[in-house]
Specification:
The protein has eight helices and 15 strands. The chain has about 280 residues and is an alpha+beta fold. Bound molecules: N-(5'-phosphopyridoxyl)-D-alanine.
């Protein structure tokens, strides 16, 4: 078994040696935020964007950021150096720290920082070739989906519904609009044009989403960031989901209905091919 390298409150150690108090507010309240970034051939993908989003999440929930930008960079670099795999998914979690259970912020608790570097799971070839199945689900999350919080209960329940319907992801629908997946962003293709929800408080501003939009510009494929009516999902030519772990993945079924002609579409094929070419050259 591969040893997973981890970091807990200033110290590097194997994952199984990490121990934390049950009074950590992450455990007791889900009071924390996280970040997840892929590493390709030992190079973190869009590190600056991931660290900016991490710092923003920390600020939005009013935790005192325990580290400077260069300390966060050093943490990521050290985990990469210590890991035997070249392709990693680095998970970073920051909570409000350890304190007697009380809803109000503790006065003097120091933030807890945990990170681990798991081998990056490759998207199965079959999913790439055939596309995946999705379901839609009522978005029962809170109103600040732009913050990458660790309290993910509504996302977990929606993904579990997807799994039980033999699908891989649930598309969150609020007020008749399809926003994003429970753990991914959403793209819909109609008549050669690509649509995705604008960056607002109802979706996570995905780093992969931004990267895909850059690729679309490079490919001269038109795109619009706008609200996506739920009904569009059933008449779309193509549907894709994007995330740091799924990259850009085509969906060929939604709520048991066939998407487009039932195979990953040609706009996806072009975008995915360029994605594979560019991901190693992305800034870090
Ligand atoms: N999830 N939307 C949600 C709700 C997400 O949880 C994620 C990522 C994304 C895509 O963001 P990015 O492209 O920056 O990975 C969108 C990660 C992978 C997770 O929770 O494991």
């Amino acid at each position: 078994m591969v040893q997973v390298q981890a970091f807990l409150n200033g110290e590097y150690m194997p994952l199984e040696e990490c121990h934390i108090s049950p009074l950590d507010r992450g455990f007791i309240f889900g009071d924390g935020i996280y970040e997840l970034l892929p590493v390709y051939k030992n190079k973190p993908f869009y590190l600056q964007q991931h660290l900016s989003r991490l710092e923003r999440s920390i600020g939005e929930i009013r935790i005192n950021n325990p580290y400077t930008k260069s300390e966060w960079e050093a943490l990521v670099e050290t985990l990469i150096q210590q890991s035997s795999d070249d392709n990693l998914a680095i998970y970073i979690q920051v909570t409000r720290g350890i304190a007697p259970r009380d809803h109000a912020f503790p006065k003097d608790a120091a933030a807890s920082v945990f990170a681990m570097a798991n081998p990056l799971a490759i998207v199965p070839q079959e999913q790439l070739q055939k596309g995946v199945a999705l379901i839609t689900a009522k978005d029962e999350r809170w109103q600040r989906c732009d913050i990458k919080v660790i309290s993910l209960l509504a996302n977990i329940l929606a993904i579990q519904d997807a799994v039980q319907a033999s699908a891989v992801e649930a598309i969150m629908v609020r007020n008749g609009f399809a926003l994003e997946g429970a753990a991914s962003n959403l793209f819909v293709v109609r008549d050669g044009e690509v649509f995705t929800h604008p960056k607002d408080n109802l979706i996570l501003p995905g780093i992969t989403r931004d990267f895909v939009l850059e690729l679309l510009s490079e490919l001269n494929i038109p795109y619009t960031e706008q609200l996506i009516p739920k009904e569009w999902l059933y008449s779309a030519d193509e549907i894709w989901i994007t995330s740091s772990t799924k990259e850009v993945l085509a969906a060929t079924k939604i709520d048991q209905q066939v998407v487009g002609n039932g195979a990953p579409g040609e706009v996806w094929e072009k975008t995915h091919a360029l994605y594979q070419q560019r991901k190693m050259q992305a800034p870090f």
